[in-house]
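During the reporting period the student researcher (J.K.) took over the structure-prediction task from the postdoctoral fellow and processed the backlog of single-chain submissions. One of the processed entries is reproduced below for the supervisory committee.
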Amino acid sequence: MTRAPRERLLDILASCKAIAEHLECSDTEDGLLFDALRMRLLEIGEAAKDLPTALTDTEPGIPWSMIARQRDHLAHRYFDTAHAIVFEAARHEAPAVAQAVRRMLAVIAEE
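J.K. obtained the following structure tokens:
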């Protein structure tokens, strides 16, 4: 059974928050931090896959299909995942996704 779009958005927001907290706790790019970030990015991608297109279209600046593909890569090719890509996504893309999700939640609340 699929979760409602609002729940999926809250899942994404929770993962973005966890990513920010993980990055605050450690400034090294060690394996444990990499694993934590990778798992949260995977969760974001899984939730993004389940969002309706009508909702993701409200935030065209976010590459939703790329986020979903990244989830597949992280889930199935974990030995072939560059640390730099994970840290780049965590540091620069997750905050933008969190902002977009907050706007999307506001749109849903108005409906």
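The committee noted the following: Residues 5-110 form one domain.
J.K. will present the remaining backlog at the next meeting.
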